[in-house]
Design brief:
The protein is α/β, with parallel strands linked by helices and about 325 residues long. The chain contains ten helices and 14 strands.
Length: about 325
Amino acid sequence: MVTEVLILPRVAAGYAATMAILNDIDHAVSILMQGGLVSLPTETVYGLAGDASNPLAIRQIYATKGRPAGHPVIVHLAQDADLQRVAKIDERAVALASAFWPGPLTMILPKQDHVPDEVTGGLPTVGIRVPDHPLTQAVLTQFSGGIAAPSANRFGRVSPTTAQHVVDEFGDAVPVLEGGPCTVGIESTIVDLTHEQAALLRPGGILPAAIEAIVGPLTTSDTKAPGTLAQHYQPMTSLLLSVDIETDKARLIDGGRTVAVLTASDPEHYAKHLYGELRRLDQLGVDILIAEAAPESGLGVAINDRLRRAATTFSTD
């Protein structure tokens, strides 16, 4: 990935002085058991985690993020967890779990009655996944329960892929378990298994073709799921998703705008560094960010999905 900054110089990122960084799994588990929140690393993004069985903890997640009520969150589980404790599992779910967990796949399934409405947004369905990060798996195993963990950022803003990003969002208010940079960098694929035909709700690190090889052709559905709003993942600076960055750059500069340009690279590299670069460029103070679209295939579909949602408020007026 090549980042080109025009008009303004690059701003060097540094690790903020903070007491919020944790390096102790026991401490993270203790916070969760007491009903508190902690940010945990996953292979996709850092999550803002709370006890999924504790309605007060879930409400605290919503309040901290500024997340609107009724927007469901995903329940994260240990690799050896009994999935039936949270959701009603069918053969398709068993097959997908065997193929892709731990990993960046979320399944939407009918919920068990005891799952709090705060987790599901009052819906009869619940999203579950098993994250692929050794520290978070250790926390989940020791905690011995489900953990709700939407992305650890203000609602609608760019997701965090390092501990520093979480600190940038919340300062010392949210302890962060340091787990290094996220290896995938964009949120999980979400597949809806609540109907006879499985449906793709959000593209991500697990490609549709791999899912279809197990459950058959995917359709679409209107089941509510995290990260599927028209406006999401947005930097504070207006963002233009471009298929011709040189033309768009010249037009905007000729119009008196200052811009920063994010050029597409290999899809895996682009996905891994996408949010970090958007966060960095957002601090430069330019008028407009230009992000080059990825090829509309494979992982590029998921990258472009995030960029389209990030760019929905852009205006060239």
